[in-house]
Amino acid sequence: MSKSNPLDGKAVLVTGAGGGIGRAIAIEAAKAGASVLVNDLGATLGGERESSEAAQSAVTEIERAGGRAIANGDDVSDREGAARMIRQATDAFGRLDAVINNAGILRDCFFHKMSYEDFDAVVKVHLYGTFNVSRAAADVFREQKSGAMIHMTSTSGLIGNLAQANYSAAKLGVAALSKSMALDLARWNIRSNCIAPFAWSRMTSSIKVDSLEQELRVEQMKLMVPEKIAPLALWLASDAATHVTGQIFAVRNNEIFLMSQPRPVRSVHRDEGWTIDSVDTHAIPALKANFQPLEVSADVFCWDPV
């Protein structure tokens, strides 16, 4: 692997790459030597189609810099659309080496006010979209006996956030889906990892600011540009990462984190089994010191980005 062109000769598909994190990753992938399929539906933050130019705009920027890219406007939540983008990549580039599942929408709302439609739409793009693109890519990867999948999860799912039940459920589902893919596809040298990105983009620009605390948080987030996510994502797509699979990372400005995954933290046992009363008097008092508080992402990542 060339240090200057670590993705030389590789083909990479980036979904939701018309702007924000996806666009930054696509542009940096091309700089690193990859041929890039830039997918973007050209939708609003809520998922409604708005423009067909988003993907082509990123392609034009890549080509002006001397890179190779093609545009795709399919919808990741549509199974046939996902299959088309995989075929387009292999037809154009002769191969496909990595998929970066970045496409997403937001329809934030407190749970007791959330409609079925808003829950369904967000889950379909994030969770079903990740499945659709990865499932189509898996057939190509299995045939060539190699491939990398990188999925964008979120601390909204891993930790929690207010008014994001749809988004949080989808993003935690992405982490579980990634682990299952890592387990099922390892025999073909296919790896699957997640990144929880912190970056100022169209997605985070929708954060409501109604207090000084939130205003300060938003100002901190604006320091975290999308380009900061690209190095880890593209390293995971490179041959240097062939030994890394089933992991969850986070990137926060100049920091990279390895996130924990659920494991038992404490247990209690009674030879005679449990009753409702002994659960109350024995089990819960013994376990409650290790209960997780009702925290949101900002409570855990509470220091200034460095």
Automatic annotation (TrEMBL):
It comes from Rhodospira trueperi. PROSITE patterns: ADH_SHORT (PS00061). GO terms for molecular function: oxidoreductase activity. Belongs to the short-chain dehydrogenases/reductases (SDR) family. Pfam families: adh_short (PF00106). This is NAD(P)-dependent dehydrogenase, short-chain alcohol dehydrogenase family. Keywords: Oxidoreductase. It comes from the Bacteria.
